């Protein structure tokens, strides 16, 4: 029974296709639960560069600031685009949003569905029961490298020296940046199975030695939580060897990026993993947030009605939960998604013999239908 303003940023490639389905799901939630969602659309990525000369304009950023939450599709162009060394990269939209709006924590939940165990390349008995969340630090580390003060979206440059070309990216974390993300991980663990795994590369990197030291100190405030450290290379291995051993994984920006693409294979596809990016700003109903699938613009399948919209639809569920405080409605979406998977509908990324292959639009429609039919 609330009025909510949502900024919708579809972006490039499959972005508009998948976001359209998520918006339809939100619309039906609005109708069924008597909420008014006002969607304000903005340009990001290549479309924004072409129309406005930058990956996201100040006006669009202001639109985001004035809303309860942001739903983001994906940005990124074909590899040939980067070959031309564009002055502005579409990905800069992400950095401006994340750093500019101080979304320092990127939550990436990973769950397996019993019906999708066979769709993964990993053995079903290894996957069964996986339920973890990666808490990825999102506004520091290698992504915001060497420029001082850091400039969002300008993490590195290639420069000419007398010995040839060189490039530099530096990995800087302050104690305060580490502490707030570690604390968030412990708080999340309290509402889950009470285990935190902090992932670093403390055998090599000074930033990781500091990370570990701060993590130890924060852990002392949470005696009820089981706490462990893992080196990132070993974590990459354990993640597919014994995924059910994990509950909350907390790690720096690039490690979290890589580990979650890997973790998507536990769920069966990149098209299954949603994310929520949060900071300290609160709205009247929850936390201000940015919601997006973990995958990219998938130029290889764009415009073909092949993309799996579930990661984006589940991101919309996270939006309802964290930014609008609408738990019942979020759960309804998650139940509808489970139902459609149980009923055997699959997009191409999860295609399996004996299952019904559907396109992006039909998958979205099936989820909308499930919300209606199951009276969710
Ligand atoms: P990608 O995530 O776009 O695609 C990787 C592979 O997964 C591709 O084969 C793609 O077809 C498949 N895939 C991804 N999402 C899918 C979905 N919903 N349904 C079915 N299949 C799906 O990664 P990439 O190809 O390395 O990058 C493409 C572009 O996307 C790059 O420009 C990159 O910078 C950008 N990117 C953007 C974001 C974002 O906007 N948050 C995230 C990752 C990558
Ligand atoms: C992601 C993406 C982005 C990242 C890219 C497109 C900059 O891979 O959201 O995971 O590395 O953060
Ligand atoms: Mn990524």
Question: In summary, what is this structure?
Answer:
The chain is an alpha/beta fold.
Entry keywords:
globular; alpha/beta; ten-stranded mixed sheet; 40% helix; binds 3-isopropylmalic acid; 376 residues; binds manganese (II) ion; 13 helices; binds nicotinamide-adenine-dinucleotide; 14 strands; Isopropylmalate Dehydrogenase; two-stranded antiparallel sheet
What do these coordinates show?
The chain is of the alpha/beta class and 376 residues long. It has two domains: 1-104 and 269-376, Isopropylmalate Dehydrogenase (3-Layer(aba) Sandwich); 121-267, Isopropylmalate Dehydrogenase (3-Layer(aba) Sandwich), CATH 3.40.718.10. Helix content is 40%, strand content 20%. The protein contains 13 helices and 14 strands. A hairpin with a 4-residue loop joins strand 11 (276-282) and strand 12 (287-291). It starts with a strand and ends with a helix. The model has no long low-confidence stretch (mean pLDDT 94). Bound molecules: nicotinamide-adenine-dinucleotide (NAD), 3-isopropylmalic acid and manganese (II) ion. The site of nicotinamide-adenine-dinucleotide (NAD) has 22 residues, from loops. It is found in: Cytoplasm. NAD(+) binds at residues 296-308. Belongs to the isocitrate and isopropylmalate dehydrogenases family. LeuB type 1 subfamily.
């Amino acid at each position: 029974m609330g009025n909510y303003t949502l900024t919708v940023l579809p972006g490039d490639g499959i972005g508009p296709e998948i976001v359209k389905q998520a918006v339809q799901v939100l619309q039906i939630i609005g109708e069924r639960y008597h909420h008014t969602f006002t969607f304000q659309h903005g340009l990001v990525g290549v479309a924004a560069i072409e129309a406005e000369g930058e990956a996201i304009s100040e006006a669009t950023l202001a639109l985001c600031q004035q809303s309860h939450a942001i739903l983001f599709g994906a940005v990124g162009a074909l590899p040939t685009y980067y070959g031309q060394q564009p002055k502005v990269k579409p990905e800069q939209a992400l950095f401006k949003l994340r750093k500019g709006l101080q979304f320092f924590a990127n939550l990436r939940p990973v769950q397996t569905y019993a019906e999708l165990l066979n769709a993964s390349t990993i053995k079903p008995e290894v996957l069964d029961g996986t339920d973890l969340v990666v808490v990825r630090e999102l506004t520091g580390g290698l992504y915001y490298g060497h420029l001082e003060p850091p400039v969002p979206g300008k993490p590195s440059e290639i420069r000419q020296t007398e010995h040839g070309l060189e490039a530099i990216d530096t990995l800087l974390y302050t104690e305060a940046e580490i502490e707030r993300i570690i604390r968030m991980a412990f708080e999340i663990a309290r509402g889950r199975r009470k285990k935190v795994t902090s992932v670093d590369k403390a055998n090599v990197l000074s930033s990781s030695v500091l990370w570990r030291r701060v993590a130890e100190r924060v852990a002392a405030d949470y005696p009820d939580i089981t706490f462990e450290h893992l080196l990132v290379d070993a974590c990459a291995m354990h993640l597919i060897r014994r995924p059910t051993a994990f509950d909350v994984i907390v790690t720096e920006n690039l490690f979290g990026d890589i580990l979650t693409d890997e973790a998507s294979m536990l769920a069966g596809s990149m098209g299954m993993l949603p994310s929520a990016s949060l900071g300290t700003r609160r709205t009247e109903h929850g936390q201000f947030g940015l919601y997006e699938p973990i995958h990219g613009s998938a130029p290889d399948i764009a415009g073909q009605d092949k993309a799996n919209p579930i990661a984006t639809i589940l991101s919309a569920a996270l939006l309802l939960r964290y930014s609008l405080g609408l738990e019942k409605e979020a759960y309804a979406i998650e139940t509808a998604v489970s139902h459609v998977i149980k009923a055997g509908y699959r997009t191409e990324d999860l295609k399996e013999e004996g299952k019904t292959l559907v396109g992006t639009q039909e998958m979205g429609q099936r989820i909308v239908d499930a919300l209606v039919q199951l009276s969710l």
